[in-house]
Write a structure and sequence with these properties.
With about 290 residues, the chain is of the alpha/beta class. The protein is built from 10 helices and 15 strands. The protein folds into 2 domains: about 110 residues, 3-Layer(aba) Sandwich (Oxidized Rhodanese, domain 1); about 120 residues, Oxidized Rhodanese, domain 1 (3-Layer(aba) Sandwich).
């Protein structure tokens, strides 16, 4: 049975802010929304401030040295706490937050938290806001990459006698994309083919979020109830195999990490395939499954 336990949660509520005492608060919304109001002292750091487009595929990690330089602009070191938030008006905003969470973990940051419900939850809790720009001094950040949770395409495959490659038996892919992408009925323009990796189970990241209505009547998304999330994970994460999360881009895979870290799932039991289906689909020697749930 999959063991899940929230001992040191990653998702926190607005009322937990004083307990976390973040050294820096990162607002990942677009600059216009940030300028209209944000958590006091928060610095603006949208997703395109650290992820880039490579071979027409968006949201990719730049070279490691470049990534370190970009994160250094936050002015925070690995032993200091970081709180990340974005808007929670749409589910995909959590993917941007997850991407930064994963990058910080890749760079060795240990105390990284996510505001559950984003800026909308902050407003809903009647917390103070500011229009004054938060400032952090750029530092010289030293980092050694922690790539223990990242798996490459080559490491997923075993080469057969006929030089054909298949997925290793000890790998269980978890596809975090929306069902239309998984079943192959639609695809982003940077795919070469449509469908999913063989033996992949579809667990759309939206399954783990629920929509709530704030005091002002506006709707926003929060992490689903613990029992709901644990039920989905326990039913679909095999203990006998290495779980590999993937999506369109590294953002969906990062959401899998964010989720499992929150529930204290053992890091050694899962990996992130950052190349995702965009990389897999471009290798025509690899099989693709369409119109079937596995």
């Amino acid at each position: 049975m999959v063991t899940l336990l929230i001992s040191a949660p990653v998702f926190i509520t607005p009322d937990d802010f004083s307990k976390v005492r973040p050294k820096v608060v990162v607002d990942m919304r677009d600059p216009k929304a940030y300028g209209e109001g944000h958590i006091p002292g928060a610095v603006n750091f949208p997703v395109d401030a650290f992820l880039i487009t490579i071979n027409n595929i968006p949201f990719q990690l730049p070279p490691f040295d470049t990534l370190v330089e970009k994160i250094a602009a936050l002015g925070v070191r690995q032993n200091e706490s970081v709180l990340i938030y974005s808007s929670a008006s749409l589910p995909y905003h959590y993917l941007n937050v997850a991407a930064l969470y994963m990058v910080l973990k890749h760079l060795g940051f240990r105390k990284v938290f996510v505001l559950n419900g984003g800026y909308e939850a902050w407003l809903d809790a009647d917390k103070p806001t500011s229009e004054r720009r938060g400032l952090r001094g750029r530092i010289r950040l030293k980092a050694r990459p922690d790539s223990s949770f990242i798996i490459t395409l080559d490491s997923l495959l075993v080469v057969g006698d006929g030089n054909g490659a298949t997925l290793k038996e000890n790998i269980k892919p978890i596809d975090l994309r929306i069902p239309d992408y998984y079943f192959g009925t639609i695809a982003p323009p940077y795919y070469s083919r449509m469908g999913h990796i063989p033996k992949a189970t579809n667990l759309p990241f939206k399954f783990f979020l629920k929509r709530v209505r704030g005091k002002n009547g506006k709707l926003y998304y929060v992490l689903a109830d613990t029992s709901t999330v644990m039920g989905i994970l326990k039913a679909n994460l095999p203990v006998s195999k290495t779980v590999v999360f993937y999506g369109n881009t590294p953002r969906e895979a990062a959401f899998g990490m964010l989720l499992l870290d929150h529930f204290n799932y053992p890091r050694k039991s899962f990996k992130l395939y950052l190349g995702g289906f965009s990389e897999w689909s471009r290798d025509t020697a690899l099989p693709v499954v369409k119109y079937r749930w596995e």
